[in-house]
Design brief:
With 226 residues, this protein is mostly helical. The protein has helices at residues 17-38, 45-57, 61-65, 68-88, 92-109, 116-133, 148-163, 170-197, 204-219; strands at 10-12, 136-137, 140-141, 223-225.
Length: 226
């Protein structure tokens, strides 16, 4: 069965459109925040790696080293998320959201007291947990922290519909993926605006989005019939 098809008539509660869209908003917001405040990307480690080597090849090792900590923190976040999946099973996604909320609140409170690198490490760690835990929407692969794969799949599904013979639900899946891209962009726009105007309170918005996700994960049945 392809990623364009859902394996059953029921979907996991952490794969519902509402939850994934909220996470995409938070993902874009956090990336904008870390770029403005810390000069690195929380989610897009590709960009961090590019900047690292651009500065390294120019001989500017101080600036190059600035992009190493977020990549290391991201790797640690992936390891912790994978461990949570092994020991907590279906509760892992809920626990990871709770960890994200606590860390973002701590970083927001200590914004003016934390060394720059501490905030970078914490937010990249949070981003890694989200990218590892939430990888599907209604059974199909997606990303809540970057748009490249979502855009590819959305365009691919549109082509499949236009070419003919696409399975049922293909057009809906394309719409969801385009919506994910739009929500990520909206989050980035909101993150840039709020961070520039009220930086001390900026992390409150993604925390609210994640709190809604946490509540929805808790009150929604384990599987939701479409």
């Amino acid at each position: 069965m392809s990623t364009l098809e859902v394996a059953a008539d029921a979907i996991r509660r952490d794969e519902t459109v509402e939850i994934v869209l909220l996470l995409a908003f938070a993902g874009g917001y956090i990336d904008a925040y870390t770029w403005i405040i810390h000069g690195v990307m929380a989610n897009a480690q590709t960009a961090n790696l590019i900047f690292l080597w651009v500065y390294a090849t120019a001989g500017n090792w101080v600036k190059a080293s600035h992009f190493v900590p977020p990549m290391l923190a991201f790797a640690c976040g992936i390891v912790v998320a994978a461990w949570l999946r092994r020991v907590c099973g279906e509760r892992a996604s809920t626990i990871s959201i709770l960890v994200e909320i606590v860390l973002l609140i701590a970083i927001g409170i200590l914004h003016n007291r934390l060394p720059d690198i501490a905030g970078t490490l914490g937010i990249s760690f949070v981003a890694a947990m989200q990218v590892e835990m939430f990888t599907k929407v209604e059974g199909a692969l997606c990303s809540t922290v970057m748009i490249t794969g979502n855009m590819r799949q959305a365009v691919e599904t549109i082509f499949a519909v236009a070419y003919g013979g696409a399975p049922a639900g293909t057009l809906r899946r394309s719409g969801i993926l385009f919506a994910l891209c739009a929500m990520f962009g909206s989050g980035a726009a909101a993150g840039a605006f709020v961070t520039k105007n009220i930086p001390n309170l900026a992390l409150g918005i993604p925390v609210v989005a994640l709190l809604i996700v946490l509540l929805r994960c808790e009150v929604t049945p384990r599987e939701v019939v479409r």
